[in-house]
Amino acid sequence: MMDAFASNWFTETCPLFPGQRFSLQVQEVLYSGRSDHQDILVFQSKTYGRVLVLDGVIQCTERDEFAYQEMMAHLPLTSHPLPEDVLIVGGGDGGVLREVVKHPEVKRVTLCEIDKEVTRVAKLHLPWMTTAIDHDKVTVVNAEGSTFLREKQHSYDVIITDGSDPIGPAKSLFEENYYELLKQALKPGGLICQQTESPWLFPHLLRNLGTICRQIYPEVRLAVASMPTYPCGEMGYLLCSLHTKPLNEPQRVLTEVQQQEMGLRFYTPEMHKAVFTLPSFAHKVKW
């Protein structure tokens, strides 16, 4: 892992996007270790605060993590009329969970994270991320996502897959069988949300997921929003629903008062609509 450091800079180099690198200046390494599943690194950067890295790939930074967490949580939750039961697959750092419990409609949340060490390290070094881990609405299960879903039938209103890149422990979360398992675990009218990387770097992934999901779900949409420390500075969000209402229009519109009470800094109802407007090269997948 330490090979990624040179002259006090951390450099992310990933085989999924060859020919480019992203670097952050390091002030202090706070944690470096290996779990049963992956390398885990936390460091204090000069300009982005604390940074969590898994297997050499940046997962979140203190400065911009809220953008990703809010979109992953509030896009699907406001697209459902009454999201009482929610499952988060992955997301052991607690960021998406923190946003999900802000919705009073949500009664029960299950966090299914394969690597309990990620949560332990996040609690120690990223405490603002893990504020909801011990919430009375929350149940934490340490299991592989596909295995956990095989035992679930019509259990959830919303399922959010907050996995890492489609390599290593998260590879199975991008395969056709996984989307079938998600469907069987949804209640009638339920929906899913999954991160789908940048359309600039992963057009093949988007085409593949689009083809798979349109065969399973009646409503499939892709949203894209800015995310400074992710590859190409943006992130794709795939939403699929068992109902036919357009996902680019929120079913529940958060008022300005609600947005303030939730402490939102990125998601708004206006943003919800805007992020589904895609550039023509990405729209050719027929989202």
Describe it.
The protein is α/β, with parallel strands linked by helices. It has two domains: 2-61, Spermidine synthase, tetramerisation domain (Spermidine Synthase, Chain: A, domain 2, Roll), CATH 2.30.140.10; 65-283, 3-Layer(aba) Sandwich (Rossmann fold), CATH 3.40.50.150. Helix content is 26%, strand content 29%. It contains nine helices and 13 strands. It has helices at 65-78, 95-100, 116-125, 145-149, 176-185, 203-214, 256-262, 269-274, 280-283; strands at 5-6, 9-12, 22-34, 39-45, 50-54, 57-61, 85-90, 108-112, 138-141, 156-162, 186-195, 219-226, 234-241. A seven-stranded mixed beta sheet has the order 9-8-7-10-11-13-12, with helices on both faces. A six-stranded antiparallel beta sheet has the order 1-2-3-4-5-6, with helices on one face. Strand 8 (108-112), helix 3 and strand 9 form a beta-alpha-beta unit. The longest helix is centred in the N-terminal third of the chain and has 14 residues, at 65-78.
Oligomer status: single chain
Continuous helix count: 9
Distance between the termini: 38 Å
- Provide the domain count: 2
**How much beta, percentage-wise?**
25-35%
As a percent range, the share of helical residues equals: 25-40%
